[in-house]
Amino acid sequence: MRYCPKCNSSSPDGAMFCAGCGERIEGNNSEPSVNDLYPSVENNIHYQTNYGRKEPDPHVSVGDWMLTVLIMGLPIVGLVMLFVWAFGNDTKVSKANFAKASLIWMGISIVLAFLFGAALMGMVASFSQAAGGYF
Ligand SMILES: [Zn+2]
Asked: What is the Å distance from ligand 1's center to 46 Cα?
């Protein structure tokens, strides 16, 4: 008995192809099948079609940018839309990168605000302690 590497069904000993799925099951020294030879080409085509579908026009038009800037000015909607643009699938790459950069700066400024706030609190605390020592 031979067992198919693909679907695991059994075939008679002399069989060259799987009775279940047609996969070539001759010994390991057999010629590689077309599927073995050209998977990378197929992957490349797949990649290219994906690429083409995702980015038919890499440019974001002026009107689109104007709308982007307008939406970003809105208090909560702007922040939500930045996340949508940064991580959404159908956003043009340049706009997605812009949204990511904006989010990163926002994160940095929030961290800095916390640090400065903590430093300020520390200063206030030490001042009041010093004042408490004097008076
Ligand atoms: Zn099979």
From this structure: 25
